[in-house]
Specification:
heterodimer; A: alpha/beta; TIM Barrel; B: Rossmann fold; seven-stranded mixed beta sheet; four-stranded mixed beta sheet; 13 strands; globular
Chain lengths: ~250, ~190
């Protein structure tokens, strides 16, 4: 049976992890490769690296990091952040990334999704969508949720699927950072209206939130950062608890 | 031991090379027919879209070479699918090593299947030391139905071939190089197959 995926997300700046992490047993908690290795051994199903660097050398630094991760880690990983062209994606896949995630650049140029899916296959193209509710309507936002657009979440998600994305990573800006649970209602609607996998992101605070997003939110995977980085939730405990609630997980 | 990963421009071959390295072996990437023929083990990777991958294989003249190889050959993911007779994806004629047509999952399930699924009905030395129902990582929209040459089954809406074997040819729909310790065991088994 296909299992639900648990996906730790690492924010990267200039080749280093950004948010503080609480791993006392790590030689270098700022090294994404070491952290990735720890997570893969702890039972993470997949990893996401989100690059937020803005320097001239960012592409080279990121490519180098991807290569080092691929060398060390035996589970799949996705790389996102600032990806806007076929060349960007080609370089990341060549260096060993399994999937890439595109966000703002797809909103600005939707044809990019068709081009990437056509060239590299849908299976490695994740489209990340950040959205929050304005007057009760889910609106797509850009630049990490700062800039609102006129796009409706569900219409955009459908278009993304039609253009060939293999998967959607949906972050609710209303829930992100609240530790109050995922946006299960919107997630369930996405799963109902679309036929590609949906990764839930934003709002993880405790183990029950994960169970809820898999059952009520019908999510295929759940992404979180700080609850894992600060060891508030251990992946093994999380999966054991999910299994008790009859949610299929890889243990 | 000389291990060659066929490099025909289709997909993420770096990960396979690294996985082999982690097992303590070295693999070279090559599109040179002589070098491929001389290898002890050949890995035939592939991700992406079937018809364009098949075209790349033809452009490099390797479509006629692969079916004639005598040493153990392992096709991974799209590599396995291209070793089949035909695939619906891009209406593509395959290499015809495995006697089966690859078809798309229907929309009863989410397509592509992405994630960790179980392997069962294991029937080959490829799975030595691997338990029934262990987890492996898959990303695919098309599948090979269960046939005589099936050596492992996964279930996604229906049971399908998650691995195939005929003579010196092996194929896995899953990615052993991304399937954690289980995948490493399977890859190691392939590397020591006689």
């Amino acid at each position: 049976m296909l299992t639900k995926r648990i996906v730790p997300c690492l924010d990267i700046k200039n080749g280093r992890t950004v948010k503080g992490v609480n791993f006392v047993d790590l030689r270098d908690a700022g090294d994404p490769v070491e952290l990735a290795d720890v997570y893969s051994k702890a039972g993470a199903d997949e990893l996401v690296f989100l690059d937020i660097s803005a320097t001239e050398e960012r592409r080279k630094t990121l490519a180098n990091l991807v290569l080092r991760v691929a060398e060390k880690v035996n589970i799949p990983f996705t790389v996102g952040g600032g990806i806007s062209s076929i060349e960007d994606v080609d370089m990341l896949l060549q260096n060993g990334a399994d999937k890439v995630s595109v966000n703002s650049s797809a909103v600005k140029n939707p044809q990019l999704i068709n081009d990437l899916a056509g060239k590299f296959g849908s299976q490695c193209i994740t489209v990340a969508i950040d959205a929050k509710q304005i007057d009760g309507k889910w609106k797509v936002h850009l630049v990490g949720g700062k800039v609102p657009t006129e796009l409706d979440l569900f219409e955009w998600a459908k278009e993304v699927e039609d253009r060939g994305a293999g998967e959607i990573l949906f972050t609710s800006m209303d829930h992100d950072g609240t530790k109050d649970g995922f946006a299960n209602e919107a997630l369930a609607r996405l799963s109902q209206e679309l036929n590609i996998p949906i990764i839930a992101s934003g709002g993880a605070g405790n183990i029950q939130h994960f169970a809820d997003t898999f059952i009520e939110g019908k999510a295929d995977a759940a992404l979180a950062a700080s609850v894992f980085h600060f060891k508030e939730i251990e992946i093994k405990n999380l999966k054991t608890e999910l299994q008790k609630q009859n949610i299929p997980v890889r243990l | 031991m000389k291990i060659v990963i066929i490099n025909y421009g289709a997909g993420n071959i770096q990960s396979i090379k690294f996985a082999i390295q982690r097992l303590g072996y070295e693999a070279v990437l090559s599109s040179d027919p002589e070098e491929i023929k001389a290898a002890d083990k050949v890995i035939f990777p592939g991700v992406g879209e079937a018809s364009s991958a098949m075209q790349k294989l033809k452009d490099s003249g390797l479509d006629t070479l692969v079916p004639k190889l005598k040493q153990p050959v392992l096709g991974i993911c799209l590599g396995m699918q291209l070793m089949c007779k035909y695939t619906e994806e891009g209406d593509t004629q395959g290499l015809g090593i495995f006697d089966v047509d690859v078809v798309r999952f229907d929309n009863q399930v989410k397509v592509p299947q992405i994630g960790w699924n179980q392997i069962e009905s294991l029937q080959s030395n490829l799975f030595l030391g691997v338990e029934e129902k262990e987890y492996i990582y898959l990303v695919h929209s098309y599948y090979a139905p269960v046939i005589n040459e099936t050596i492992a089954v996964s279930n996604y809406g229906l049971p399908y071939s998650t691995a195939l074997h005929k003579d010196n040819f092996y194929g896995t729909q899953f990615h052993p190089e991304k399937s954690s310790v289980v995948g490493e065991k399977i890859l190691k088994n392939f590397l020591i197959i006689k």
